[in-house]
Design goal:
Number of domains: 3
Distance between the termini: 43 Å
Helix content: 40-55%
Shape: globular
Strand content: 5-15%
Bound molecules: iron/sulfur cluster
Structural class: alpha/beta
Oligomer: single chain
Order of helices and strands: HEHEHEHEHEHEHEHEHEHEHEHEHH
Number of helices: 14
Radius of gyration: 20 Å
CATH class of the largest domain: Alpha Beta
CATH architecture of the largest domain: 3-Layer(aba) Sandwich
Amino acid sequence: MLNTSSERRKNGSDQTKLVERILDLKRKRNAVILAHNYQIGPIQDLADFVGDSLGLSQAAAKTEADVIVFCGVHFMAETAAILCPDKKVLIPDPHAGCSLSETVTAEQLRRWKSQHPGAVVVAYVNTSAEVKAEADYCCTSSNAVNVVRSIPEDREILFLPDMYLGAYVQKVTGRKLHLWLGECHVHAGILPADIKAIRQRYPAAEFLIHPECGCVTSCMYYMADGDIPSNGTHILSTGGMIKHARRSPAKEFIVATEVGILHRLKKENPDKRFIPVDPEAVCQYMKMITLEKVLTSLEDMVYEVRVPEDIARRARRAIERMLSLA
Ligand code: SF4
């Protein structure tokens, strides 16, 4: 906590110097900095591209830089490493994990598959490279419905690891899916009762749900079930959310996702108000990346994320199918 204005000024000038050193090294290394929407504000401000896991995968696939500094969680950096085998992918903190991706291992998935021979495996992007390598399709919450619809009706489907997204897809498509019982600990706490209460407090506000994080799939599920009213509700990707907030005549928006997204929304729409459903919905893994760690990452070229080629080759097939349906 900074108490005096001189402490705050010093902190501001320290941060400016840190950013200058990062940008200087970034140029020297021919690096690109990718940041997830849930990163802390200073990292988002520094990044060349800010987006969700799908957007970041697409940005990684397109970049001409030699080095990708991935400011996000580990499975996302792995996805970049799979799509860009000729680039060096660095994550500034190797301990930045994801509770949702950790709910299933490749061994568990192999056992599940052996109980359903011939079933098609659809894995949400929040999974490790080993799990993706065992999957037929990768998906995000925005294309999960299309992925499932593209699978012939007579095929059994194993859907993992987010049970809320799976239940939502089941409702929308009318297909019976076998669901893995995983969830994201951060957003498991965003409940219909909280949403109803906040919508009553701000009746004129639009309600925005970001579809890319496993976190908000529970909201999508409750809405499909009728527990959350759908009027004034918009399920949007990050880009869609940013565009929608800019174009909409509404002045207030209730946002149901990790609070990191508010940084960009507020920055781009200073005259509008964004209200988080749960201000405590903070992913501590996402917040592990700091400016100091980004600097160290570029100075020492750490921590490199590598995926063994046999796993990468199989995982790439599932990821490329996801990108083609995005
Ligand atoms: S918010 Fe949840 S799903 Fe997203 S990275 Fe954090 S733990 Fe994983």
